[in-house]
Amino acid sequence: MNFSNVLIKWYLQNKRDLPWRKTTNPYHIWLSEIMLQQTRVAQGTPYFFAFTKEFPTVYDLANASEEQVLKLWQGLGYYSRARNLHKTAQYVANELNGVFPPSYKELLKLKGVGEYTAAAIASFSYNETVPVVDGNVFRVLSRYFDIESDIASPATKKEFTELAYELMPKDNPAIFNQAIMEFGALQCVPKSPDCTVCDFNDSCAALQKKKVAVLPVKSKKVKVTNRFFNYLIVEDALGNTILQKRTAKGIWHNLYEFPLWETDKIVDFDVVSKAVTDTVFSSYTIIGIEDYAESTVIHKLSHQHLHIQFWRVRIEGLIENGLKASELNVFPFPIVIHNFLEKQEIIC
């Protein structure tokens, strides 16, 4: 059985109709690949349409403000991708005259572009013979060939890249890369794949050896940290409030939020009331503190679980340069704050 021929035939019969597959424009392919890092296709597709409508060329994206980019990215997560996207657009527009580098090695020099993304752009836009290796590719190849190498190891990445290169038809690398990723996304899925309908069920080593559920092998475990956020929504006599920008490195860099008090555990009203009165807003006269009903959420990130509570803090007088509720729509927020504002009908 010719692995590549069977795979490509399956792809041509089963592939999804995705907008970035209808072009070789490196700008569009780069956008889609950055958006689909750590993101499902169904979630990323509306953002792709939004970005290509708002920023039809790399020059349009380069000329936008960072806040515009972050606002449009809001809800997609991993916001460093959006910041790198913006910086790379500026570099391509201003330093490369709007032309993306035409080779894998040159693409690797762009900010936010790693080996996988560079390989995808190089093969899809320029038909360069370079394999893409992501989680889908690890899974398909490890199962089909019964490879037990630990995919958390850099040496394994090299092993799979060399194998994919051997399998790849050198006259059409793009379709092979698309096919193997699509096969991993739709057929050879992580849990409980339907091997009875798989085109490789007569030749897949993992299926013959009953090892489908244990491949690929990945030893590294992600350590999750719990953090406890208390957002203090200040409200003055006119209903105006305060926002602050997260300028420190880490999650949600350069996004906006309400004043934050981080604690080492979930706290109750008495603890919040004392802290707000004595320290956090000691310069104001507090006339009321209450929690927002049913607003406590656990927001799960890849390495952190954020336990978030929202508190309404009413004060006497007016906040200097306070923001009206109607002005909040333009700010890029972490999606958990955006959802809170929508739920409370503070923004529409």
Automatic annotation (TrEMBL):
Keywords linked to the UniProt accession: 4Fe-4S, DNA damage, DNA repair, Glycosidase, Hydrolase, Iron, Iron-sulfur, Metal-binding
Cofactors required: [4Fe-4S] cluster
Domain of life (superkingdom): Bacteria
EC number: 3.2.2.31
Reactions mediated catalytically: Hydrolyzes free adenine bases from 7,8-dihydro-8-oxoguanine:adenine mismatched double-stranded DNA, leaving an apurinic site
Pfam families found in the cross-reference section: HHH (PF00633), HhH-GPD (PF00730), NUDIX_4 (PF14815)
Cofactor stoichiometry and binding remark: Binds 1 [4Fe-4S] cluster.
First-level EC class: hydrolase
InterPro entries given in the database record: A/G_AdeGlyc_MutY, DNA_glycosylase, HhH-GPD_domain, HhH_base_excis_C, HhH_motif, MIG/MutY, MutY_C, NUDIX_hydrolase-like_dom_sf
Occurrences of domain HhH-GPD (ranges): 35-186
Xref: PANTHER family: ADENINE DNA GLYCOSYLASE
Assigned protein family: Belongs to the Nth/MutY family.
Purpose of the protein: Adenine glycosylase active on G-A mispairs. MutY also corrects error-prone DNA synthesis past GO lesions which are due to the oxidatively damaged form of guanine: 7,8-dihydro-8-oxoguanine (8-oxo-dGTP).
Name recorded for this polypeptide: Adenine DNA glycosylase
Protein's organism: Flavobacterium lipolyticum
